[in-house]
Design a protein that fits this description.
This protein is an alpha/beta fold. The protein contains eight helices and eleven strands. It has helices at residues 24-38, 45-51, 55-69, 93-107, 129-142, 156-160, 171-179, 199-207; strands at residues 74-78, 88-92, 120-122, 146-148, 166-169, 189-192, 211-218, 222-227, 235-236, 240-243, 246-249. The protein has a seven-stranded mixed β-sheet with strand order 4-3-5-6-7-8-9, with helices on both faces. The chain has a two-stranded antiparallel ribbon with strand order 1-2. It is globular.
Length: 272
């Protein structure tokens, strides 16, 4: 809502007019949105959100719903609308966890900084799948702290960034941060997705001393591949394999059939 600003959202903040300021119709809309994202109606949890007034109580109710569903829990994410009308895409928590396990193995390998020395500095919100994976689920599973700068001014990165941090951004937001004169401490990296990474931005990041990992994927598929140079092919994430001209998940719990990849893939070997 224009003019509203909540730099931090304390758990005891109410969702009603004396807190976030939602009137009765807006409250129903927020409940409907939470229900759509977490399929709360299957356990009747969405009714509790009308009774519970605070954000902490909402979070606890959603957590109980996910715990009850276990490996069958599902989360829905909205597409950006860049190629069609925005729509909801459903992913199982089991599939998301498999992707995060692959990302942990593929992001921090060899001589890279260990997870324990990394903070995720988030320029993106966590309600789209890229932000959720890298600023919510992966940090939770890896025990990595998160600094939330989504919605902050680009120059805020300079005040926050520390050696070894991982900056999570879209190319647009990374470009804004670099143009704001962000000083890059030693050992920092940027994890970028959401749009193709321009060559000029790769070079600007390199000149600033920032290592870049570009993630290729989509809301429909989750992450598919990574690359660390603009002229390199993407390398499939370790939980995926080539399926003729497309990609599929591998492993005993993997769903059958190819992923709904929207792009035409040009292969340079079995995994590139």
């Amino acid at each position: 809502r224009p003019g509203s600003a909540f730099p931090e959202l304390p758990g005891d903040l109410t969702v009603r007019e004396d807190g976030l300021g939602l009137d009765s119709l807006e409250l129903l809309e927020a409940v409907a949105d939470a229900n759509a994202r977490f399929a709360l109606h299957e356990t009747g949890t969405e009714d509790h959100l009308l009774i519970f007034p605070t954000l902490a109580q909402w979070a606890a109710a959603i957590a109980r719903n996910i715990a009850h569903e276990g490996t069958q829990a599902r989360i829905r994410f909205a597409t950006s609308g860049s190629t069609d009308a925005p729509r909801q895409v459903e992913h199982s928590l089991r599939a998301l966890d498999a992707e995060v396990a692959a990302l942990r193995a593929d992001l921090w390998t060899g001589e890279d900084a260990p997870e324990s020395s990394v903070r995720m500095v988030a320029l993106v919100p966590c309600h789209h799948i890229f932000g959720f994976l890298f600023t919510a689920l992966l940090p939770d599973r890896a025990g990595v702290p998160v600094v939330d700068l989504s919605g902050a001014a680009p120059g805020a990165v300079t005040r926050v960034l520390r050696p070894g941090d991982a900056l999570v951004a879209t190319p647009f937001l990374l470009d804004l941060a670099l143009r704001a004169g962000t000083k890059i401490p030693e050992g920092c990296q940027a994890i970028v997705s959401g749009a193709p990474m321009p060559v000029a931005l790769w070079r600007a990041a390199q000149a600033a001393g920032l290592a870049v990992t570009e993630v290729y994927g989509a809301t429909e598929t989750g992450g598919i591949g990574l690359r660390r140079a603009h002229d390199a092919p993407f390398e499939l994430l370790s939980h995926l394999e080539r399926d003729d001209v497309s990609v599929r998940a591998c492993g005993p719990d993997a769903p059958p059939g190819p992923l709904p990849v929207q792009d035409r893939l040009v292969w340079h070997g079995p995994r590139q």
